[in-house]
Amino acid sequence: MIELIKNEIKGTEAVKQLRIKKLKSGHPFMINSNDIGTDHCYLEFPDGTIKLAKIESSARDYYIIRDLTPAEAEKLRKRFDFAH
Fold first, then answer.
1. What is the pLDDT of residue 23?
2. By Cβ atoms counted within 10 A, which residue in 20, 22, 53, 75 is the most buried?
3. What are the residues whose beta carbons fall under 8 Å from the beta carbon of 83, sequence distance 6 or more?
4. Is the dihedral of CA 32, 38, 43, 49 positive or negative?
């Protein structure tokens, strides 16, 4: 059980580091969440905006559904423990 917790912590830290790396390099970071369905995701952009997107797996692409408000974006960051 302790090993499982240690691996979970390592995985969480790896995701946080990947997020920072992607944003610093000018690329969006994809945030998947069970509460929006398997064909949707959030995209966080280097400018701090977060958008809800629908994934088109057949086209290997996505399209933006809407921009989150600043308050929604902050709430999402807090939920995933991502510093802005």
1. 97
2. 53
3. 77
4. negative
pLDDT of residue 47: 96
Residues ≥6 apart with Cβ < 8 Å to 48: 73, 84
Closest CA to 64 of 55, 53, 72, 73: 53
Distance of CA 84 to the CA centre of its chain: 12
Residue type, 37: G
Q: What is the pLDDT of residues 26-72, one digit of tens each?
A: 999 999 999 998 899 999 999 999 999 999 878 788 999 999 999 99
Find where tokens 């308050």 sit. Answer: 71
pTM of the model: 0.84
Who's near 39: CB < 8 A, 6+ residues apart? 54, 55, 57
